Amino acid sequence: MKSLYKYRGVISVFFAAVCLSFAGILIKMVDWPAIPSYGARSIFTFVTILIYLIKRKHKIYFDLKVFIGSLIFCFMNISFTVATQLTTAGNAIVLQFTMPIFIILFSWMIFRKKPDKLEILCSIGVFIGMICFFIDQLTGKGIFGNIMGILSGVTYALVYMMKTLPGYDYDNSLLFSCLMGFILGLPFYGSLDWNLHNVIFIFLGGAIQTGVGFVLLSYGLELVSPITAALTSTVEPILNPFWVMLFLGEMLSPSAILGAGIVLITSLVYNVLSAKALNLKKT
Length: 283
What we know:
Blueprint (H helix, E strand, L loop, with lengths): L1 H5 L1 H13 L2 H6 L5 H22 L8 H23 L2 H8 L2 H13 L5 H18 L5 H23 L7 H15 L1 H4 L6 H26 L4 H8 L1 H14 L5 H29 L1
């Protein structure tokens, strides 16, 4: 038991990634439009995270930075939900993992930070991987789904960059984004089919997949290094399409598999080498 306690950070991040990996299957199991689907899940996520923050005595507040962060969080989740509904779960999650290329791009555009050789090579790799997703997605539905997947990566990058701003609270932005999502869904709830099947998967998606997933990730990131978190979290984009393939028979196309491999390897290499460079600077 003592040895397990020593590795509680890694175990926490691992099970967080496992929880989050069920996003694809849980979204596809509910036959609702994206906004009310995300909104209904959000109220359960809100309650789970609120309990966690209260237990950890985390200050809950709402200011302009939290508001902007909440808007970005909300759009990120809606765009990911749309992408998962309109394309394959594998496409959606891997395209969201294009986040590093947009961090590099925004850093260059906003903070005038020129990319180094590693960042340029990683950007090229991710761009090539993205092209692979569009090769055989020539229908309007497929292309729009992939575009929304990329937009979820763009907004994910913005959320990540906001974490570096003084006074920005990641936890409160996530908390209030859930409330925003629920409010956005209000016009739709009355016309939806609230059968037991939908309610069960909405609850699982909100309270367990997102809520518990975030709580485990938040706890784990306090105990492990960035490189360990980066390596452990790669379980999520690998398992996400696997669950959908196992239970719904949804398969990635050969070009999408190639693109997924390029994006995931490039993203992993970038995260690991960046974390190593950061650790060297600290020492």
